[in-house]
Amino acid sequence: MGKRPNEKNPKNTIAATRLRRIIGFIILLILLAATAFFSLMIGAKPLPIEAVWEALFAPTDRYDHAIVQNSRIPRTVIALAVGPAFGLAGALIQALTRNPLADPGILGVNAGAAFAVALAVGVFSVTTMSSYLWFALVGALIATIAVYVISGGAGKKPPTPVQITLAGVAIGAALSGFTTALTIMNSGAFTRMLNWNLGTLAKRSLDDLWSVLPILIIGVLLSFVAAPSLNAIAYGDDRASSLGVNVGVIRTISLLAITFLAGGATALAGPIGFIGLMVPHIVRWFIGPDQPWIFLYSLIAAPILLILSDIIGRVILAPAEVPVGIITGFIGAPILLVLVRRKKVSGL
């Protein structure tokens, strides 16, 4: 018997979905390029398009060219690196814990990296990015493992998303308290870490980025290695194992990726919150629960949100600046409340 006229062909539906996702991804790329260019134009001193264009392709010693070359290009490029890292880390944690409201901040990963950096600066007098990067990575890894173990991950039954979230919030709060105590007891460390602790893209150089970039790239690659298998894990460990997924290996790869992404990004820009929560969750509304596509979209959408937040921070109290971590908090807190009050959050 032939198909009824109103029946949909599954192949056509799949093709239409893939086409819609590709078009959406292209639109995001265009928005990212536009946002990055606006970041070079907008600040305490707005610059015309012509001045930015000349600063990019024919720079001179003019003052406006120096602003673009020495300040706005580095912070924009750094946002293009740490934004995807925070977004992907959030997407990984949400997929791994099957909790659509999880992110590196809520699960204590950022707090672990921040505490390790405070320890490096306040106790060991470490001052260079290349040195305290490794402290941040170790801190992020220890925090991730501690959350998983304390929530019951070492037992026979995997921990529930609620258990993991509660453990993460508790560990994050404790580590944040220790970080504050360290910086208060050491005035030099307090001064050096004041802006960093709030999350900032200012006063960072491209040399700082180069020391972190290899770690972030490894984290991105590990994320996409784990992404297809995380689709199966979303149905539960037993179902994933029956589909041929080595759950233990995928969890290990995911934890390493989260450590590299959140730890490296936090070392460079500070513990910027809510990016890893908002972006994967919003992306999932538009493209559904397919993890590789969620990761791909988060890779582009996260820096858009971070750069827009940084632009707002530059102009809202100009000529003074508000650190981007505070702006993302102002944006993210109301969104988090809306997500919590929804009867049905977007599924994993």
Automatic annotation (TrEMBL):
One Pfam family per UniProt = FecCD
- Keyword annotations: Cell membrane, Membrane, Transmembrane, Transmembrane helix, Transport
Looking up InterPro entries in the UniProt record yields:
ABC_BtuC-like, ABC_transptr_permease_BtuC
Task: Give its localization.
Answer: Cell membrane
- Where do transmembrane segments lie in this chain? 21-44, 73-93, 105-126, 132-150, 162-189, 209-231, 243-262, 268-287, 294-316, 322-340
Source domain of life is Bacteria
Instruction: Tell me which stretches of the chain form a coiled coil.
Output: none
Q: How does it sit in the membrane?
A: Multi-pass membrane protein
- The record's principal subcellular location, in a coarse class, is membrane
The text of the family note is: Belongs to the binding-protein-dependent transport system permease family. FecCD subfamily.
Protein name stated in the entry: FecCD family ABC transporter permease
